[in-house]
Design a protein that fits this description.
This protein is an alpha/beta fold. It has seven helices and seven strands, in the order βαβαβαβαβαββαα.
Length: about 200
């Protein structure tokens, strides 16, 4: 059974998908804790499923490195096999990445390496792209630059707004993260090999 710590910053829709999947006894992973960088509304999902939560807020620390050390300590208490950033909107310090990667993965609402960063959906629309999607990738020291694990395409409609497109990407992301974690748990995906 693969033990996960999931990190969120917002509503936790991907977290919810993982919690629902993990509530099935046949799913090969369990969520042992959920962490956030603020009092995120998505923490309520973890509470509903009886999963412990923690908050490590950056503003309570002198710098990013100190915050990263505190976050790493909070995660390590739960001894996870995999850390999943699911809508976690913070750039992680290099020391933190070094501690957990490649067992540290992130969801991103674009077909990486296209449109990295916090405004991927807006950037795809501004670029006139006709296709975008969702990626799961290993977190490295860059911003959305780590090796891609899996991707799914989403067609951009002519009348799409940033909000409507993002909602369709989120629906795909939920399926993608559940499937990717399952494939890591069953060793159909080897993160060590991908990271080489």
């Amino acid at each position: 059974m693969l033990k996960l710590v999931v990190l969120i910053s917002g509503s936790g829709s991907n977290l919810r998908a993982l919690l629902e999947a993990a509530s099935d006894d046949t799913y090969p992973a369990e969520i042992v804790a959920v962490g956030a960088d603020n009092a995120a509304s998505g923490l309520a999902h973890a509470v509903e499923f009886g999963v412990p939560t923690f908050i490590v807020a950056p503003q309570e620390y002198a710098n990013r490195e100190a915050w990263g050390q505190a976050l790493a300590a909070a995660i390590s208490e739960h001894q996870p096999d995999l850390v999943v950033c699911a809508g976690f909107m913070r750039i992680l310090p290099a020391d933190f990445v070094g501690l957990f990667s490649p067992q540290l993965i992130n969801m991103h609402p674009a077909l990486l390496p296209l449109y990295p960063g916090a405004h991927a959906v807006r950037d795809a629309l501004a670029d006139g792209a006709t296709v975008t999607g969702a990626s799961v990738h290993i977190v490295d020291e860059g911003v959305d630059t780590g090796p891609v694990i899996e991707q799914v395409q989403v067609v951009i409609n002519a009348d799409d707004t940033e909000e409507s497109l993002h909602e369709r990407i989120k629906a795909v992301e939920r399926e993608l993260i559940v499937r990717t974690v399952k494939n890591i748990a069953t060793k159909n995906i080897n993160l060590q090999e991908l990271a080489r």
